[in-house]
Amino acid sequence: MTSQRKQRGRVYRLMRERGVDGRLEDRLWDRMPAVGREFGSPDFERLMEEDHRLEAGVFDPALRREVEITEPQRAELRSRLAHHRANPGEPGITLQKLRAKLR
Questions:
Q1: Residue 53: which pLDDT band, with cuts at 50, 70 and 90?
Q2: Helices within the chain (DSSP H only)
Q3: Model pLDDT for residues 16-33, shown as the tens digit of each residue
Q4: At residue 101, does pLDDT exceed 70?
């Protein structure tokens, strides 16, 4: 359980015990300190490296899946990459046109 979930659980328990209404809940959430996993946090890079090392969060192996593409799709992607590398300033293709061509 993440520290944010634990803290949220503590707040909810306290509120239930004291019979607090929703307005106070909003004020409590506004005062709650950030846990450091937000973008812009000074600890963001360190936490991302830690997640990578522990295979947690977005690096969880359960979230990985192989993308299966056909050989014609693979050839098309290779030719597009080669063309892009040879002409980096040229505008690209829209996603709709790409999908239509790969069908």
A1: confident
A2: 3-18, 22-31, 44-54, 71-86, 95-102
A3: 776 656 677 677 777 776
A4: yes
Cα–Cα distance for residue pair 101/12, rounded to 1 Å: 53
Same domain, 11 and 54: yes
**Which residues constitute the domain of residue 12?**
3-63
Do 54 and 21 belong together in one domain? yes
Question: What does pLDDT average to over the chain?
Answer: 77
Pair 40, 11 in one domain = yes
Q: Quick check: helix, strand or coil at residue 97? A: helix
Position 1 scores a pLDDT of 56
- Show Cβ contacts of residue 21 under 8 Å, excluding neighbours closer than 6 positions: none
Q: What is the pTM of this model?
A: 0.28
Same domain, 25 and 8: yes
CB atoms within 10 A of CB 57: 14
Q: Which two tokens stand for residue 82?
A: 């080669």
